[in-house]
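Our consortium's second objective concerns turning raw sequence data into structural hypotheses that experimental partners can test. To show how far this objective has progressed, the report includes one record in full. It was chosen at random from the queue rather than selected for favorable results. The single chain below, 696 residues long, was entered without modification.
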Amino acid sequence: MTAKADDGMYPMSELPRLNLKEKGIELTAEQLFNPHQISLVDGICRVNGCTGSFVSPNGLIITNHHCAFDAIQKASTAANDLLTHGFIAANREQEIPAPDYQVRITENYRDVSAEVLSAVRDNMSFLERTKAIDKRRKELELAAEKEHPGLRAEVAEMFAGKTYVLFQYTFLKDVRLVFAPPIAVGNFGGEVDNWEWPRHTGDFSFMRAYTAPDGSSATYSKDNVPYKPKRFIQVAPEGVDENDAVFLLGYPGRTARHKTAGFLDYEQNIRLPMTVELYQWQIHEMEKAGATDRSVAIKHASRSKSLANVEKRSRGQLQGLRRAKIVATRMLKEAELQAYIDSDPLRKSRFGTLLKDIESVYQEMSAAGALEIHLLQLRQACRAASFGYFVFDASVERAKSDLDREPPYMDRNFAQSTQEIKVAMSDWHRETDEIMLAGMLERLSKIPASHEIEPLKVLFSEAKSMESVAKDMLQKTQLGDPAFVEACLKKSPDELRNTEDRLFSLIVNLHPFYLKLRDTEKAREGRLGQLYGSLVEVKQQFLATSFIPDANATLRFTCGRVRAYSPADAVVRTPISTLKGVIEKTTGVEPFITPEAVLKKYEAGEFGRFLHPRLGQVPVAILYDTDTTGGNSGSPVLNKNGHLVGVNFDRCFEATINDFAWNQDYSRSIGVDIRYVLWITGTVYGADHLLSEMGL
């Protein structure tokens, strides 16, 4: 049977089941995706954790400004501030390498569920089960890459513990920045407008993918040439209007629509509140550190923006969970399911304790949540601690056989993993790290269970204050020195255990506890995988329908229409914002500053062909009722013919609970209108060569 209408992130395998014409789309499923012929998907790519579209035959990619943000920030200095002033490469020689960026294009997929699950034995512990599945997935990936040289393979879990699909990707490692508008355009409205509608943000940038001269994937070299995609997406400068059909192709992150009330309760009462508190604190400290020093502000810009995005989304999810009473609603549905299970002796013997067994895992997670979340944040909030953890974890993992290593340390991934650490180190700021380390240690000291961890127990008993401990550790650490880290990556675990660096020593001494936590998480994963596999089975019997698997960063399709919505009683918000709204919002005070170049073109009435015929203004953003989540950032918004009319970048605040439940009344996604993209790029900033390259 066809999946329910509210599950709208369809894997490619589901496309033939959809009545696309009924949804207003003029393309067939095979025109969208066909592994044996060129199709629309060949023009779609994954850009790190976002989505992008090829818009020229020479590897030109359009994605979000916030997806290119890290590349813009890394190339910025106080003297050459590309975040503030924007960037235009007049030619390919001027394009700026983004060394920690990767691009993937989906080439093919096949179901490997039976092959993966053949590694599982009935007498395995939950930890052994997860490790066996992980190893089999790696074996399948390596075998596929050996069979298809040049392609990247990845086995994705679709339904937990039940179905697995092997995806094959073209994998490009030379990505460069081509054009980025000033942040006053690309992030107009800042965190005030983030997750809100109406939006007036030009959240787009252009990048380019390169290959070796023979077309093979290669890291950066001046001899590399632009990638030649099999297909690129045609830009439709006429854009869209209200009620027009649109669809998106992209790589949405993770949703939890098939998770139980126990999981939602853990999210609502444990993880999300802690995330909000921890991220608000970190953002505040980074803003304070950069308030009087632009060079420090630039160092923190990418990380602060990323945290702010998650923080506000988490607040929206908390609000949505509580207002919509999603936990209680799901509990009622589970009560109905339990009654169905209990109504048949055979079902009861198989599934009778299923929901209680799942609930017990989340109760365990809730009880341990404060310690586990703060322990992980200790090595994330303090960047030097994260560098130290990577170095020591790598030394332990690299001593194992390749298939037994954690994925970042496998031969196929290690060069990229070390490259990302080196890039991250360029933004390290010692003084901020002192504050982060002190704050995390102080928080941990108030959690009773942390005093059972010997290295922390000793630290808490000996130190007069966490501020003095952090200051001493950070002022003497070498973990911010790339040469030191490079040297440490060549040493054995025993050599690293002899370090005199106090911060590094703390991380080394905590490593066994992090390993225990890793195994605990794997054991839970094994237990939940088995339980959720059974849950899907019995739910399909109960509801007499099939389901769309939760999003998992693999290629998905979603469709809808450009549509208004009502977020509150007597309030209706129309679905197209315009340049007039940008001007009305402009105050000259952050985050509502509009660049002089934009104001001049507006005052001169230089709009060209980019005016909306009905509204008489240049459209800025559009609103539509497609089903999206994180990872859909940068996804192309396509019209009924598969032409580019916008670039997805956000959701409404009410739609932050899309991850848990989708609702047609208030779930809305937001994209920058292609007409604003073209007006800003060509008319305002004179990058007409890019418009020409796109065939305009």
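The partners drew two points from this record. The chain has three domains: 10-102+173-256+547-691, 107-166, 275-542. Residues 502-543 form the longest helix (42 residues). Both points have been shared with the crystallography group to help prioritize constructs.
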